[in-house]
Amino acid sequence: MKDSRILEKLHCYHCGNDCEEEFAGPDEKVFCCNGCREVYSILSQSGLSNYYTFNKHPGATKDKLNPRFDYLKEPDIAKDLIDYADDKFTIVTFYIPAIHCSSCIWLLEHLNKLDPAIHYSRVDFLRKQVNIRFDNNITNLHSVVALLDSIGYEPLISLQDVIKKQTVGSKDNLVKKIAVAGFCFGNVMLLSFPEYLGISHYEQSFRYFFGLLNLAFCVPIVAYCGTDYFRSAWANLKNRILNIDFPLALGIAVLFLRTAFEILSHNGSGFADTCCGLVFFLLIGKFVQRKTYYHLSFERDYRSFFPVAVQVTDENGAERSVSLADIKVGQRILIRNNEIIPADAILLKGDARIDFSFVTGESVPINKVLGEVIYAGGRQTGEAIELEVVKPVSQSYLTRLWNNEAFTLTQQNRTKTFSETISKYFTIVLLAVAFGSLFFWLPTDFHRALSAFTAVLIIACPCALALSTPFTMSAALSILDKNLFYLKNTAVVEQLAHIDTIVFDKTGTITVAGADRIILHGDITAYQKQLIYSVCANSGHPLSRLICQYWEGTQRLGTSSYFETPGKGITATIDNHLVDVGSRLFIKGGFQSKSNTDTTEVHLRIDQQYIGFFSIKQQYRDGLEIINSLGKTYNIYLLSGDHGHEREALSGMFNPDLMFFEKSPQDKLDFIKNQQERGRKVMMIGDGLNDAGALKQSDLGIAITDNVNNFSPGSDAILDGRALSRLPQFFKFSKDTLRVVYGSFCISLSYNVVGLSYAVSGKLSPLIAAILMPLSTVTIISFTSIATHLAAKRRKLR
Amino acid sequence: MSIIYFLIGCSVLLALIFLGAFFWAQRHGQHDDLYTPSVRILLDDEPIEEEKK
Q: Among the four A271, A599, A685, A746, which has the fewest Cβ within 10 Å?
């Protein structure tokens, strides 16, 4: 048994990762890192090892350093996070991205075994939230969070979520309205059946009774469930817009008035069933359209990227946590390894190596010297640094981007949806037909004229039209969601179909940040290694930085002469040795072979003797071949905040004239705006805060991410990195869904034409209306969902 | 046939009670989380250690 175990790859008992180094734990379990082993020992000591029996490898890897939660000890900051607190209990809700399986639910609901002061914990799996109630006399927020972190469930606490919590609560009562509508619809159908089947003469008293009851059920339908349509139609009329809500509201009103008139005047049975059915189906359509991804947020900005609080030191050197909003100019802040600088600040102390990849797109950490201004959004790598704040958080270089008008204006540059465009003409034609039939009959028969007029408005009420878009688009949304492409709402599918220009960001979108593969070819002694390291340490070139990273920790030697030729290489004298580091052309002469463009080579020569080279392979995302195929039908651009040192490697994918480097976040936004002014429909694909402005400005902003629970900037859609290769299919599919909408529109029109032929004659029986309306609705719903799924199959989407 | 009046009154009353029950559940957050309870019910309080094969 033991022999066979050696042959198979070892997986961490906790998280299931491959174990590169073995950390043997208790009970003959193997772990990938110390963190995972710690979690296991905590759980097994508390009798919670059942965690591992529900699922194999349920944990998330814990090889990262423990983050600091000291700021939670500050009552002011803690107050914002807590849902409710009295002198005994505190209730708090955390968002925990690591929740992913039934083991997580089980463990998080047994926190009581780890800390008896936690009385209650409940997981909401889809929202990835846990609601905790604890005794605040025994424990506190800080230790609860520390406990969660110690078992591998670090809560994500960000400034924006704190703010978001306050705005939650403005829910409309759609579900309640549907419940009322369904209740009325069901009862009205029941009471209308005798009418359909015919009521004998000696039971005429029932007819009036049923009619009155039907009318009574219609009152809540019109007065409660249908109010949104009246309100929206009225608001649009005031703005001189004819949208689909106008004929709908008109239909509902006419249905109700005619029903009331017929019943109260003993003139007939009215259209109570059609009226209730119409509102019920419309509300269902509204419900379907409103798909929400509980675990995704499309509205994030810099606040959810920044920490909640930062360590501030006062004159006496004492540290305390201060919430970001309270940071003032002149305060000294302390930033540790992997922490983000929240405001523009001057470096006072320490060796700053700032990774700005998320802000500028530049993937290599930048060294900053004392006294230099460091812009907000950078992430310190290395030792702790001390800074003095020069601008408050909201006025920083990065956050100023959010003051741009693209963020304050509501989107009006978006293309009108198909149903918006068509409903205008539909309404005009509908009114023309209605008034036409009114005036046609008016000279001969007043009663018939009125009946024909109302019948037209009833039968042509665009119920099926109003449902075709929501049902098609929500079916499309759920298909795209299975393919790891998450859209903010159903209107985005239509935006996708109209796109003609695609703009890519580079770092993080085309390339995977921080995953360059560097390989050394040739034998190099430890001394030679020192020499080359010392040369590269002088240079700010990204390739030199990569080599330094590769050999991190090497002793640096003094440099006596140093000369860098931009774009070629470095010549330096160190320890009386002449060292050359650079391109093939620079070292060997002759032409640089362009055979493989995805690797960059750095050649090394010491004392005129060639000793080998580095090959550096940029890690590009899988599936980038699609860019070439998309280039045939779309205008494709590359915008990068990076320097142009990868221009050559990327020229295989992009047209060299359409690649732009060293673009600031504002430049990117302006570029998109410029394209839009030329009449193009622009889609932006980006990943970082530097793209946030461009994503917002574009007609369709897609945030690409490797883990949908991680931070992604505000956008219209979130695309999982693994699904990038399916982008052309998504485009084709979105066009298919638009065709489905057109098709269902034709179907609903043909129903309308059939119904109108009865209606204009003024002889519409309630039974025909009651059959036609649900029949057209059911046809539309089944047609759209079947056609959309067939389209997905054709495009080979899951 | 006057019993119909009574029967319809009963059926509407019953339906109203159900509607009220739905509203009550909605207000008490019973429809806020529609997924987790389906997992939770499958988790035993103290599952028996499975025999390793």
A: A746
For A542, the enclosing helix (H) or strand (E) is: helix A542-550
Q: Position A433: which residue type?
A: V
- Residues with Cβ within 8 Å of A26's Cβ and at least 6 positions away in sequence, in order, are A40, A41, A44
Do A126 and B4 lie within an 8 Å CB cutoff?
A: no
Distance from CA of B17 to the nearest CA of A (A): 11
**Residue of chain B whose Cα is closest to the Cα of A100:** B36
Given this model, what pLDDT does residue A385 score? Answer: 87
Q: How far is A765 from chain B (nearest CA, A)?
A: 25
User: Rounded CA gap, A53 and A389, in Å?
Assistant: 50
Dihedrals phi, psi of A194, to nearest 5 degrees: -55, -35
Q: What band does A22 get if pLDDT is binned at 50, 70 and 90?
A: low
Closest residue in chain B to residue A48, using alpha carbons only: B46
A663 touches A504 (CB < 8 A): no
Which band of pLDDT confidence, cut at 50, 70 and 90, is reported for residue A177? very high
Residue type, A14: H
Query: What's at A573, amino acid-wise?
Result: T
Residue B34 amino acid letter: L
Chain-centroid distance of CA A352 in Å reads 32
A126–B5 CB contact, under 8 Å: no
Instruction: Please indicate, yes or no, whether the overall pTM of this predicted structure exceeds 0.90.
Output: no
pLDDT digit string, tens, across residues A501-542: 999 888 777 777 555 667 788 788 888 888 888 888 777 676
Q: Is A371 left (phi over 0), alpha (psi -120 to 50) or beta?
A: left
Measured between CA atoms, the residue of chain A closest to residue B7 is A191
* Residue A248 token pair: 């709908």
Please give the pLDDT value at position A4: 44
